[in-house]
Amino acid sequence: SELMARRREITDKPERAACATRLILPMLKGNVMVYASIGTEISTERLITELRERPDVTVFAPYTVACEITPRRVVKWSAPDNCGNLPNDCYASVRDEKARVQSIKIDYCVTPLLGFNGDGYRIGYGKGCYDKFFARCKTVKKIGFAFDAQSAEFTPTENDVPLDCCVTEKKVIYFRHESYCG
After folding, report:
1. Is the pLDDT confidence value at 180 over 50?
2. For range 121-125, the mean pLDDT
3. Average pLDDT in the 39-51 region?
4. Please, are residues 25 and 47 in contact by the beta-carbon 8 Å criterion?
5. Residue 144, SS3?
6. d(CA 45, CA 181)
7. Does pLDDT of 156 surpass 70?
8. Rounded CA gap, 24 and 12, in Å?
9. I need a surface site. Which of 11, 37, 122, 147 has the fewest CB within 10 A?
């Protein structure tokens, strides 16, 4: 797609990711779920690493099976598989977490995307995994994390859930929605 090509053409991704990471870090506290970046996505490795060092943050990463996202607590970083799942030893043991995960409330979700528009809607990878997660977790603050070049104009579909804001290497963009109460 055009958006994939646009993202692929960005040559200084590490520098841009560092800028975006500096912008997003002060926004996050509590239970924060951050996707493990794959391919040409803006890198979240440094973001996850820095958040794990903060006493006011518990870091989770999505563990996705059949488009069902489960937040799992991150204990270390390693390269994710092509679905964006970290290796099992990067998560807290499932046995220890079972009771916690059932009642866990994610405060912020740092969300991957191919593109975002001026109204805060995102184009993902077409499966609707994050839209389904957002429909279940209505109070989570949804933050897109992307390169500025991923801004695009498009019409959302009826099941799309808009982001609260999007952080790029250049700026933080806040979106206002009818359901917004901040």
Report:
1. no
2. 91
3. 96
4. yes
5. strand
6. 31
7. yes
8. 19
9. 11
